Amino acid sequence: MKHAFKFARLAASIIALASLAFGQDGRIYREGSNWVQEVSGQLSAAKNLRVKLDAGSVRVQGGSQAGITYVIHRRAYTSSEQQARHEFESTHLTAMIKGDTAWLVAERAGGKDHKCSDDVVVNVPRNLDGAKLETGGGDVKATALTGRVEVTTGGGTIRVDDIGGEVVAETGGGTIEIGSVGGNVTVNTGGGNIKISSAKGDIKAETGGGNVVVLSGLQGAVLETGGGSIRLDKCSGRVKATTGGGSIDLGDIGGPVEMQSGAGSIRLLSAKGRVEAETGGGSIQLNGATSVRAETAAGGIVVKLLSSSDARTNSTLETTAGDITVYLANDLPITIRAAIEMAGGHKIRSEFNDIHISDENGGWPGPRTVTAEGLLNGGGPTLKVRTSSGNISFLRVSH
């Protein structure tokens, strides 16, 4: 019985390879100034898929079929048919089932210095456990798969959508677009933009200089770009966003938040946890938080502090040059410590009678220090507010 099983598996592999060899004798035709060879075939069902190309694009589509079908367009970038046939013959194509994995491999003999690429389209059963797709340079697209998807390309665009498991994607410099994913998402590009529509797991996205946009994440998110902007509309967990010089714009966050920009503006709609925001030269606007550390080298700060039974941590707001406006909930127990170090004509304004303002120099002309202190609702965690040159305002949160 065991020998019969091994023989059946061997026969299946031989049939698959024979099918590919027959397909390589398929038609060769001219397309513009280039030549194309079309190779097609099929493989029996497998739990996993591996596609590996020296160069070219890959597209994998899940569906209701039982087996695997593929079409390979091998493109030779030469006007000579003889030279094109030589290029085709120098590429070794393999299509086989090995264990529980279906393999499609295109490797060039004698290295990768050839004027040829392979564009592969594969239709597979939707319920694959996993797909690993790799190309030395070209676009990759994968859709409608229930398992894990891993994609690597030397420099093309990556598009992935309708994936039930984890997604890992890396490109040397192209754009990455992720649609709906049922697991974690980890993506990296050398310099392109990243967009993620929806992920049920943790998100890690990094680009050397492009923009990062995330519409929805149900866990945490770590987002990083060397110089572009970051936008995150909604996330249920902890968020860390870092950019070398762009803006950061976050929506509703269900956990703590860390934001850092080399020179851009920072904006947050709301967070359920401590918020830390720092920029080398931009404004900071935090519209709903319970505990905050916000620092900017040059720019204004606007913060709305809300009351919470969990808020027992001190807050700090500091700018070298700019106004600071703080909106305080009426029922917020907090201790206020504020100062304008070089006031000039700048002032501290308060809508709370319990915040007491003092002018150190008693109205004399020239730079002076203006301070304010007070206990609201009996006092609580300390809020320290400081600007070297700017106004400070304490206002009530309007309902």
Question: What does it look like?
Answer:
The protein is mostly beta strands. The chain folds into 3 domains: 1-154, no CATH class; 155-219, no CATH class; 225-399, no CATH class. Helix content is 8%, strand content 55%. It contains 2 helices and 36 strands. The strands form 2 sheets. The chain has an 18-stranded mixed sheet. The protein has an 18-stranded mixed sheet.
How can the largest sheet be summarized? 18 strands, mixed
What is the domain total for the residues?
3
Radius of gyration from the alpha-carbon trace, in angstroms: 30 Å
Report the uncertain regions: 1-24
| Mass-distribution shape | elongated
Strand content: over 45%
Mean pLDDT: 90
Approximate helicity band = under 10%
How far apart the termini lie comes to 77 Å
- Assign the structural class, choosing from mainly alpha, mainly beta, alpha/beta, alpha+beta, or little secondary structure: mainly beta
Q: Can you count the beta strands?
A: 36
Total helical elements: 2
